[in-house]
Specification:
This protein is of the alpha/beta class and 356 residues long. The protein contains twelve helices and twelve strands. It is globular.
Length: 356
C-alpha cells in the first residue's frame, strides 16, 4: 500500500486452518501473506488445527472437530459474522459459495465487498447465487465453471516457492515416479497402477510411490487400488504411503524424478504446480496445461497408451536434459504462479485504485 493509505479489515471464510493439513495446509501460508495488507484479519473456519499467524489475525472455528451438528455450525456462523459486522470491510470466501448464499444479503445491506474463490469444473444453483452476490469471483483454470462470468478473474495458482524448491538433483531416485494426492476415483489412481503393471510386463524399469489417504467413502476403492498393485509391490517396484503434512511434501517431491497426475481438466491441481516449483518434470492430462507445458508432459485424458508412451520417454530421458527441464518449470511457477504474485493480484481487487 502507498504510504498514508488507510488499511481496511478483512474477513476470510474457509474450510480449515491447519498448517499441517494434508490437503488444505497451503491456506495457512495464504493467510500469512495476506495479513500485512490489513489492519485486522478475522478467519472463520469450519475447523482448526495447528497454526502460527501474525498478531492481527484471529482464527474463529465453528468447531467441526468437536462434532457439532450442522445446525450448530450455522448458528455459530451467523453469530460470528453478525457480532463482527463492524470489524470487516471485505469478505474473501475460499471455495464454499454456500456461505455467500447464507449471508450475501446481509453483507450487501452493510455495504461489504464480497469475493469468492471457486475453481471447480462443475457448478450448481448455489454456485450461481454465490457469484451473483460477489463483487468478483476468482479461478485458476480456464475450464472452471466460474470462468464464464464477466466478474470472473483468472488468478495465479499461488505456490509458496520458499517452501517448494529443488534440492540436490542427485538426491532424486533415478527412474522414480511419484503420485501424491487423495486416493479417490476422480484421481484415477487405479488407472495409474494398471499402466505401471503393463510397463512392468514390457520389461520397463522404474520404481513408483503413491502417497495419499482415501476418505471413508473411498476406502473400498483404495483396497481395489492396493489389489491392482499387489504384484508390483511384491516386486519392490511400487510402494504405498499415507498422506503427509503439507510442509513435508516438498521433501517427497525432491526424492523422485517424475510426478504424474491424472486429474481431469477443469481444475488446477496444486500438486502439479508444487512439483514444478521443485524442479520436477510432470506428466499430466489436464488440457488447460497444454499451453504451459512441453508436449511430452501432457497426455490425452483417459488414454492409457499415450500416458505409457510419454512416461517411457521421460523415464529414459538423459538426466541432464531432465534437470534442465525441471529448472525451466520452476521459472514458470516463479513468473506466473507464485504465492507472492497471487497476493499481489488479490490486493488489486481488495484495494482497487490503490498503490499496493
Amino acid at each position: 500500500m502507498g504510504q498514508g493509505d488507510k488499511k481496511i479489515n478483512l474477513l476470510i471464510i474457509t474450510q480449515k486452518v491447519d498448517r499441517d493439513d494434508k490437503v488444505l495446509g497451503f491456506f495457512h501460508n495464504w493467510i500469512m501473506k495476506i495479513s500485512p495488507s490489513f489492519d485486522t484479519v478475522n478467519v472463520v473456519c469450519l475447523e482448526s488445527g495447528k497454526y502460527n499467524l501474525p498478531n492481527n489475525v484471529r482464527v474463529i472455528s465453528l468447531e467441526k472437530e468437536k462434532r457439532k451438528s450442522r445446525v450448530g455450525y450455522i448458528i455459530e456462523f451467523y453469530k460470528n459474522i453478525i457480532f463482527l459486522i463492524r470489524d470487516y470491510d471485505v469478505i474473501f470466501v475460499h471455495m464454499n459459495p454456500e456461505y455467500i448464499v447464507m449471508a450475501g444479503i446481509l453483507w450487501r445491506i452493510f455495504n461489504k465487498k464480497i469475493f469468492l474463490w471457486h475453481n471447480h469444473k462443475i457448478g450448481n444453483i448455489i454456485t450461481r447465487f454465490g457469484v451473483l452476490f460477489s463483487n468478483n469471483v476468482f479461478y485458476t483454470s480456464p475450464n472452471s465453471f466460474c470462468s464464464r462470468y464477466k466478474k470472473a478473474r483468472i488468478m495465479p495458482v499461488g505456490i509458496d516457492t520458499d517452501i517448494f524448491k529443488g534440492f540436490d538433483p542427485s538426491a532424486k531416485y533415478e527412474k522414480s515416479v511419484l503420485f501424491l494426492g487423495r486416493i479417490s476415483p476422480v484421481k484415477k489412481v487405479e488407472m495409474f497402477v494398471n499402466a505401471l503393471s503393463d510397463l512392468h510386463g514390457q520389461g520397463i524399469g522404474f520404481t513408483a510411490s503413491i502417497y495419499g489417504d482415501p476418505t471413508d467413502s473411498d476406502a473400498e476403492y483404495y483396497q481395489r487400488v492396493r489389489g491392482a498393485g499387489k504384484e508390483l509391490e511384491g516386486a519392490g517396484m511400487l510402494s504405498f504411503y499415507p498422506g503427509v503434512p503439507y510442509r513435508e511434501t516438498s521433501n517427497i517431491y525432491n526424492q523422485h524424478a517424475l510426478y504424474v497426475n491424472f486429474t481431469q481438466s477443469g481444475s488446477m491441481d496444486k500438486t502439479i504446480f508444487e512439483a514444478m516449483a521443485c524442479e520436477m518434470p510432470v506428466l499430466v492430462s489436464n488440457r488447460a496445461l497444454k499451453d504451459v507445458l512441453p508436449e511430452p508432459m501432457v497426455f490425452e485424458e483417459d488414454d492409457v497408451n499415450d500416458f505409457k508412451n510419454k512416461l517411457i520417454n521421460l523415464l529414459t530421458m538423459d538426466v541432464d536434459r531432465r534437470v534442465a527441464l525441471g529448472k525451466g518449470l520452476r521459472e514458470i511457477i516463479i513468473r506466473e504462479h507464485s504465492l507472492d504474485f497471487l497476493i499481489e493480484r488479490l490486493m488489486d481487487n481488495f484495494y482497487p485504485d490503490k498503490n499496493i
